[in-house]
Amino acid sequence: MSRTNPDSREARAQLGARDTYMNLAQRPTATRPGAGVPRRAFLRGLAGVTIGLPILGYMLNDHGDAYAGGEPIPTRFGLWFAGNGMHMGQFTPSVGADWQLPADGSLAPLVALKDYVSVVTGMSVLTPRHPHHSGMSAVCSGGPHLKVADVRDTIVSTFKYPSVDQIAANYFLTESATPPSYRSLEAAVTRFRGTDEGTSFQYLSHNGSVAGESNVNPSEESPHAFWDRLFNQGTAEPLVRKARASVLNSVGDQIQALEGKLGAKDKQRLDQHLTSISELESRLSAPLADCQQPADPGEFPDIDSNEVVVEKNVVMSDLMALALACGLTRAFSIQYSTCGSGAVFWMVGATDGHHYLNHTEAAPYGVGAAIARFNLEQLAYFLNKLRDTTEGSGNLLEHSSILVCTEHSEGWTHSQDDMPMLICGKGSGRLKGNVHYRGNGDNTSRALLTALRGAGLPLAEFGYEAGYTNAPITELEV
Amino acid sequence: MRAPAVAAGVLLATVCSGCYRGIDAGQAEGDSNVGEVTGGGDDSGSGDTGEGPPEATIEPGAPTMHRLTQPQLHNTYLSLLGEPLTLPTDLPTDDLLYGFTSISAAGATISSLDAEKYETAAYAVLEQVWSDPVRRAAVVGCEPAAASDPCVAEFLAAFAHKAWRRPVTTAEVDALVGLVDSITSDLADVSSALKFGAASVLQSPNFLFRVEIGVAADDRPGLLRYTSWEMASRLSYLILDAPPDAELFALAEADALTERDAIELQAQRLVDDARARPALVGFFRDFMNLRKLDTLDRSVEMFPQMSATLGPSMRAELERMFEATVFDESGDFRSLFTTPDSYLNEDLAKVYGIAGIVGPELRPYAFTEGSHRAGILTSAGFLAVNANKTQTSPTHRGRFVRIQLLCQDVPPPPDGVDTTLPAPDPNLPPQTLRQRLEIHRENPACSGCHDKMDPIGFALENYDAIGAYRVVDELGLPIDSVTEIEGTPVAGPLEMTEVIAALPDAAACIARRFYEHGGGHLAASGEEDAVQHVIEEFVTSDYDFQSLVVALVTNDGFRYASPEVGL
Predict the structure, then answer these.
(1) Which residue in A34, B332, B396, B548 has its CB near the most CB atoms, within 10 A?
(2) What is the CATH number that goes with domain A6-229+288-476?
(3) Contact B65/A269, CB-based, under 8 Å?
(4) What are the phi and psi torsion angles at A438 (to 5°)?
């Protein structure tokens, strides 16, 4: 891989439009939706202070859809994943425009947002199948999983190809003269309680793997750590930041010197180290993003042995929305729960882990259906947050394209046909919203391609091997 | 001692030939190594003498970069900067792969988030030293006035040498001096600039990874052997989770860690170091999947003993049992399955129904005859980690014993089989979980594998999902823990554990897992002779775990490597 010249990065950063971001402490408070659900108050002590709406009217052109300088408001891309499938009888709405819920529809929490939400069903995983593993890679990366080994009574796998958030992240780097501070951001809501079956079961954002190495972008699952990382970096002296960048540059040289002595697999691993170091270095070489600092959310320990899901989702969603709003990143992923997650959704009556429950609950899977709906309520909180974040003449959700997916259709069948998927956001006018497209065993990659195009990626084709497609779902596009 | 192990493997293969292995994509990709990975015992034709190292050609793993685990990183910071040091806790996660952090570390990369955390950690530890002029002088060794002061280069060379656990080249030192020089110009303070030089050393892949490359092995054409420097780190990080000490540095400097005898002497010395206790306990923690206990979740309504500290207490009990067995008692690993000796605190005493133990500190406790406890398989931690939130799972308990503790192969459920246990029929009298699981016996698609797993779990049905002893289940129905294991009738849990303890697979399995832990990879088919040799030495030593450590590090599979084959 090639390393960019930090001098030129620095120079670019100094010339760039960073100074259009500013402190917005005077803005009125953004109202937080989701009242009615008991929630620990996040951003407490912040009454009267917004959590950051960085693009002000005077920065924009007369239509409010681009910066005054002509640079469009950036479109964001996101991947939002909840493990263990949905309940298709209750998930699947009417086909076509203006989708309507079935009885007990699990998409009910999204009805108020339906102008921003298109539904995709009837898609199949066409890559070689293995329970969970192939579905995970197919819906998140558009390619097959990479089996690392057969082990004990299952397999261990990772992603052979990068997850779509990384595809978008890499594209955004090339698109923008001023790359955001973070190439991508990753957050988790529930904690990992799956089984030891490789990165496919533990992580969402992947960089792809050549030889079975674990090349992931871990999701931060601690609200405090996520806050600390993004919003508590202080105001380090420019010379100290420069020194830290020089240190990283020297580490980059050490990596390159070492790479020459290593076998191919370790070289791949060090390539990632170099990429990570370079990203950190370029962040230090650019001016600090000027985001409003919210209060430290703290941690959310279990209460009476129960995971505090709703409250943690609020905080992680708020922090991610803020990071997107103030330009820290354009590409993100939220690992609401993992592939094969063992999270216990006690609040809807589950007494055992989600995956175990899927294998043990008898028809008609009432608790499983309640979990699916509950999970979509948590998604709705995040999407509402984006919609309620004003940006120019629109809102953050309008300027986003978010793929929502899960690794199989329903937990009790583990089927990888009729995969439930959502494409949320308007993609800055590229996506229609409020359409249900139902395929007929088509490639799940069609939804990935459509979501990426929604974020402005000029792709006519996407996917790998049996996951390849050149057919975006044009019915969802403007 | 080996024949029974092979026989057991053959028996298993026979039984499980009736099991269905899911036909799907995974199979189509060609999984020829299932038997080897799980120790199916397919090598009965070689290495029977048990004397000396097998000279047969072995194919050990390729040299690998092992990312330092959190305890290893902590100990390495400490060795460089000294006490007192507040160690960073927000470090990259130690994931499990095949159950082991060591194996995960051998495949891990450094993500952007990881790089951030390493950077923050490096400055956090360095700042503690640099903010104190006395400590800084002690670490740096001088007070340079300019970057050109020779002591700058001397400090950086010595610091990098110690941190990277290998000689450093002139070019490497020059680069570090150049870095310090340029930062000195900006900060107008060479002392502060030196901190950044040290930060470069601490963020280097040479520091964050245990780098292994190997050299051609003169005595084994076609193979590599680990250099003395690499061997010093292999030994020290395996046995102590810590970097090589001065003696190992001296031996590496003299290239004196190439011979088996020298390695054996050092291993024996290191096992006596106090840091060997937490390091080897760390292996046992992964072996028993005990980390999961830190986030144990159980319904507090059903289990009044439940508290936030109970899971960690359960973990601590098992770890103390292992530590005592290996370091303070007989050392015979098998006794862990049968010992009445344990370590309890108030949390645990509540689960075990023992009065008079108060407070969080663990203290020795010997279970009495009627207490229904003996060894790790009747410990609350083992029983709870292999149960569900509200009820037990005989299948999970049996599966863990078969797969993790005996290294036996139990295939997954067949594709398309509905694994949902039918709901109890409200028109029939209530049934115990064991009675409901009888469906596994009736369906031949299930029985081949469940007959291996369920009976072990049936014998443990006397313990609920939190590990408390019971004679009736949650419905008030009497528990039936009489069953048959390996053809031996057993009346309840204590007889079952004796049968398991005596199985050759029990000792062979932990030796195999320790081999895999030591190398950071699953034992491949080309390593089977090496694995068998380690098992034989373990058996010969009367299952002494410290001897297993020495047997591993003197083993060809630990000392040699195969060149990496192309991708």
Answers:
(1) B548
(2) 3.40.720.10
(3) yes
(4) -115, 115
